[in-house]
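Hi, here's the filled form for the chain we discussed.

Project: internal
Contact: R.S.
Residues: 267
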Amino acid sequence: MFNKRMVITFSLACIGIMLSTKTIAADTTVVVQPNDTLSAIGQRYDISVEALSDYNQLMNRHLIIPGQKINIPSERTYNVKMGDTLSQIAEKYHVDMATIMRQNHLQNPHLIFAGQQLYVGEQRQSVRNKCYRTPVNQPYITSGFGPRSFDGFHMGVDIISQMNDLNIYAALGGRVVSDLGWSWVGPNGGGGNMVMIQQDDGNYAFYAHLAHKKVVIGQRVSQGDVIGTMGETGNAFGVHLHFELRRYLTPYCHEALINPSTRLGIE
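And the returned structure, exactly as it came back:
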């Protein structure tokens, strides 16, 4: 008959065996090449700029140099910080929020706390298989996603073409859908002439301030199709494209928004 000391020793020995047989995959190391950017590396490995910057403890994510080594995490975990939301974490690691909840046995997406460690290793199939193209050729972002001092939160990105090409191209294939009567869009709204596409990855893409639309509601478009021309209709200052991505159609809901730069690989 085992005594308590024998049982405890045996149990710890068993635990030690189990832990020692676990194999942890090594990180992938990428050597930065000339003209590489962190966003381009992130797009190749389906991980956001923010996640790469955090993991590699970069002081300036815009400053990487040829020969520098960037580690791509093999088993992805995230330590929750004060002010984080599950939606933001899912976006950063290109994972469905429902997947994070399932993998971490979470019952309520709003009940996470600073210091909590979440496993975020299972990438979303739709993201792996769907690679966006830029909606303009040789794009340059004139105003990024997020808070702006002069008009509050910018829900998308403003883009111009550096080659004076005014054509607007579908970033991903999908179907042109109606504007649902939102006051933000339409010929009398702030977005001016706009095309909205329900994409094949399930997200909604908004192309606003167009001079002309070249598609109609219900039309099926393929990635790279010309859907309009760049303009300054609506509430716009100068000719540009306002490009916006949403997970679902809830007006003015920041939780629905996706930072387009994370999909387009440009900043």
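Let me know if anything looks off before we file it.
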